[in-house]
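Please annotate this fold before class:
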Amino acid sequence: MAETKSKLLIIEDDLDIAEMLNAYFRVQGYDVFTVNWGEDGVRACQTHRPDLVILDIRLPDIDGFEVARRLRADRRTQDVPIIFLTEKRDRADRLQGLEAGAEAYLTKPFDVQELRLRVQNVLQRARRIAPTNPITGLPEGAAVDERLTECLHTEDWAILVIGIENLETFREAYGFVASDDVLRAMSLMIQNALREVGESGHFVGHLGPCAFVLITSQSALPALEERLRSRLEQSLEYFYPLKDREQERRNHRRLKLRFGVLQGGAGQYETLEHLKRALMPA
């Protein structure tokens, strides 16, 4: 298992199977969350961006085929791997599942060891493809881990983490398009600031869906941090409609930024996991 837990979303209306899979994969070292309805599964995938979805076909509302079609049609979830786990054994159903973009199709009753290996293999294949965030186009996942790992053996590095707080509240009020615009605008302002600083070798990616990570040199950090704090903080109120801005200034759940800085040299952190733990409170 990788040091950073992979996230699994299980969409299964059989509560016994859902509970069993949840417990089994947590023991295997995965971060697991489950839902029992298709519509809830689509929303959960859009919100939490899992690394893989285990999907039943017979669900109480929309079926698994429709869930898969919606995930593939949404740029935020189009690359999330899907494994169908279902009682439907007909060849036509299997072909329909594969046509919907599933990486595997397992029928019930299933061998949990086979499912574990399927999950493991699909995730390994996904990691070999350099992942990018579907909204901003910036690196995320394994690509970010690779650059962070380089810091473990580099003498001069500085990391700036910029987190956007309350973006989910903003999304609930104004919709996915507006929240995507926030992320895209932030990423562009960050990239422009990096170009203006002028040094080469900067890196920017996603530490999480609502967090950016910048890797630079210790000498470049002060000017870069000052520039970004000023520009990003000033931009926040402009993401709200004009009629709501005065009210949002008094709202404690409004969009906010969280900055964290970490500097070091070779040997300061033993593993990637230790480095990422140090970044999280930042």
In short: The mean pLDDT is 88. The chain is about 45% helix and 20% strand.
